Amino acid sequence: MRIITTVAEMQTLVRDLRAAGSTIGCVPTMGALHDGHASLIKSAAEQHGTVITSIFVNPTQFAPTEDLSKYPRNLERDTLIVAQAGGTVIFAPTVDEMYPSGFSTSIHVGGITEVFEGARRPGHFDGVATIVAKLLIAMSPDEAYFGQKDYQQTLVVRTLVRDLGLPCTITVRDTVREADGLAMSSRNVYLNEEERAQASSLYRALILARTMIENGERRATEIEHAMSATLLQIPGLTIDYASVVMADTLATCDVLPEKTNVVLLLAVRIGTTRLIDNMRCTVGG
Amino acid sequence: MRIITTVAEMQTLVRDLRAAGSTIGCVPTMGALHDGHASLIKSAAEQHGTVITSIFVNPTQFAPTEDLSKYPRNLERDTLIVAQAGGTVIFAPTVDEMYPSGFSTSIHVGGITEVFEGARRPGHFDGVATIVAKLLIAMSPDEAYFGQKDYQQTLVVRTLVRDLGLPCTITVRDTVREADGLAMSSRNVYLNEEERAQASSLYRALILARTMIENGERRATEIEHAMSATLLQIPGLTIDYASVVMADTLATCDVLPEKTNVVLLLAVRIGTTRLIDNMRCTVGG
Question: How confident is the prediction for chain B on average, in pLDDT?
């Protein structure tokens, strides 16, 4: 495994690899790798001679009240997972490398960032857009892989890459889930045993809502009420949002239009842990 | 002359040229080319096998009240100037190509954009930073050339490129001047004959201030008063600013520190035309 820690070294390596005929796939992560990340790395390794996994816990996408300091970090364990999944290079820069003294640039994607996670986590998506642009400029991949679990983030990344003209294909892969349906997430380690059992309620709520849509329900409030009711059976769970919106724009719709794609979006807090999940559905058709 | 109009075609061409062993120099412009631009293109042609001149009048760096619609455009004339200066490629995208429907990304450079041009032209430097990033991503040059006339812009571009990690050297060349010292600018065509004659007062004010510094004056207010007094001899001229500040940060200083670089910054209006100019000076040493 080649571990690179500076942008300059990364850019030199990529230029050399490309000159030697390799295409480049990359998987941007914040480390604490799980099977969801491994699945992305495997996908990339099937398509590209070089797979770069970036591991960088990006401070600017955490609000001051969030879990930056306790976010799990273990480069040694992550390196094993990358190797087993077929990754060949790790890009693990320091915070000082990515945000040197005097750093003063930020990237803002408008519109889709104003709702859901963007509304609840001030500055979060500016932090995401800025670091993703920097990582894609450093690794200049032909293709970058993201998990659908952070659904709104995938829309932000697609918009960012299209708007800046970064020469990179964005590929989004399905969320990988535990046996009981819980979406894999580095933050699941924060859950105690009871909370971990309760956390499968997000998946149950999503499946219920999807079934309602499949069975012909088109009223957004009915679908949202059903998801909320499922979630609120869990004592101590609080709901940030449980919504069904248009999949590409996150626009609300009182009645789901036929032959469109919608997305079910959930964010809840169980104890002190915030969890998100989502599911895309095709309406009718 | 090869004229490219799409980002995708530009990126393909650059990749092919680089694979064939050429290095790439670029000169981002808004067209209406003059000897200042030609001098940048010549500089680039001395260093690089390929010189790309971009010609794009960027609407997002004009405020609603500014001169976007009347900004001079003449691609045929510009093409001749590029060819004579040794440029080999022109990148002339349309507004729709650079800002397609749904475009919603902007780049903000903090700090140095809050004063002078940034304070007087709301949104101007966000527009500059966003388009320069897009142009550098499209042309991916080894080296990009800018004129010092837009001094604050050169600081913004340097910060942007460093912060995003764009693999590109930024080279700033001295302002090219008319015989009477007026800085070459595409906006000089707006001046009538009388105003054109008066416009050399900017250069006289800069030379006076530089001479004062060379002769030992260190009080910023004395230097600024002298520049203002020179400018205000012109009837109908109004001053936006006439300042001496630290060259790298644009920070004010009551007393110019020895062995530092400062910059004299001027912005005035003559009739309806706004002109800017500047001069870097080393203090003592």
Answer: 97
